[in-house]
Amino acid sequence: MKIFSGTRPSGELHIGNYLGAISNWMELQDKNDCIFSVVDYHAITTPYEKEKFHQRNLEMVAWLIACGIDPEKTRLFRQSQVPEHTELAWILSTVLPVSELFRMTQYKEKSTDQSKENISAGLLNYPILMAADILIYDADTIPVGEDQVQHVELARIIARKFNHRYGKIFTEPKTILTKTKRVMSLKDPTKKMSKTGADGIALGDSSVIITQKIMSAVTDTGEAGKISPAVKNLFGLVEAFGEPEKMAEFIQAIENKTIQYVELKRYLAEKIIEKLIPIQKKYQEIMAKPDKIEQTLTNNAQALRKEAQEKIEKVKKEMGF
Ligand code: ADP
Questions:
Q1: CB 3.0–4.6 Å: which of 41, 147, 195, 264 could bond 11 by disulfide?
Q2: What are all long-range contacts of 105-111, with beta carbons under 8 Å and residues at least 24 apart?
Q3: Residue list, ligand 1 pocket, CB within 6 Å
Q4: What tens digit of pLDDT does each residue of 34-68 get?
Q5: Where does ATP bind (predicted)?
Q6: How many Å lie between the centroid of ligand 1 and the Cα of residue 101?
Q7: Considering only CA atoms, which residue is closest to atom 19 of ligand 1?
Q8: pLDDT band, residue 118 (cuts 50/70/90)
Q9: Residue 116 — pLDDT band, cuts 50, 70, 90?
Q10: What b/e readout covers 205-225, taking b as 16+ CB neighbours within 10 angstroms?
């Protein structure tokens, strides 16, 4: 399989990114051709701090390597170092009706966070660039969280429309999801945990902060007598971070009222901390050598550019340029 996926350097990676996407990247990297990107052009579609931007990119790469993404096995790179992605995005934008973009859930959600005059065309066009990221390498399998499924579907639509008009040039990609395909906010279980919200657990959070966040997570939303969405979310985390038998035990005990949520939360905080401490240590070691990260990114981007340029040449030839 040829795999492509990316993450925005718009804040610290959180356990939602880890469980929804990166855990799959790690599994796939051994047996597949994997291309993983820090998608910095995507990150500028919403407000960001330019003084910290370069550093954020390096930190994101360091976190990915610390989690277990092996830069020897995968092609880890920074999106803006392969400018052919944006060239292809322009071309693809000419085959997609704009109405398709307005129906994207992420656009609707992100644009309601901003006043109308501040919503950039980039935010609307984001899925076209994402389609270009995928289609330029003929990636067939895209490991993402559930929130990105709609965008991968749009990439399929774009590929199909393009192929219909100009001949079979692009591979139609498909999504693969992890078991924990969507981690919700600890404060509001109707929203997904995100990098920009303070409602999630960042991979770099200290043990004290993790404990505080988990202990103050909401539990009492939803219909009385039923397991609430907030508790379901916590159960999902127990399943992902705890011992395999623990979740069934907790469900039983809570239904029988023999334990309270506070005990589940204490267990969960401990398990998350156990998982994150070695990742945090590795992150510190990697960040001590920023030049090495920079070199890896540049080498990978140079190699990928060759592939991307060949594809663009082919596309333009078919289009009659
Ligand atoms: P964020 O929305 O946190 O900025 P990105 O857009 O950079 O994250 O997404 C990186 C990857 O993490 C994507 O594959 C996305 O689907 C996944 N992801 C993001 N948030 C979650 C979540 N709350 N639960 C599961 N997966 C998620």
A1: 195
A2: 105/147, 105/150, 106/147, 106/148, 106/150, 106/151, 110/45, 110/46
A3: 5, 7-8, 10, 16-17, 20-21, 144-145, 147-148, 182-183, 192-195
A4: 999 999 999 999 889 999 999 999 999 999 999 99
A5: 8-10, 16-17, 145-147, 183
A6: 19
A7: 17
A8: confident
A9: confident
A10: beeeebbebbeebbbeeeeee
Give me the pLDDT at residue 182, please: 96
Intervals of CATH 3.40.50.620 along the chain? 2-182+290-319
Q: Is 195 a catalytic residue?
A: yes
Cβ contacts of 33 within 8 Å, gap of 6 or more: 1, 2, 3
Distance CA 75, CA 298 (A): 11
The active-site residue, picked from 195, 213, 265, 271, is 195
Which of 13, 14, 17, 48 for a ligand 1 pocket mutation test, highest count of atoms within 8 Å of Cβ? 17
* Residue with token string 């350097």: 9
- Which tokens belong to 92? 């693809």
Q: Which residues contact 258 (CB under 8 A, 6 or more apart)?
A: none
**Distance in angstroms (rounded) separating the CA atoms of residues 315 and 32:** 25
Question: Looking at domain 2-182+290-319, which of 3.30.300.30, 1.10.3720.10, 3.90.226.10, 3.40.50.620 is its CATH number?
Answer: 3.40.50.620
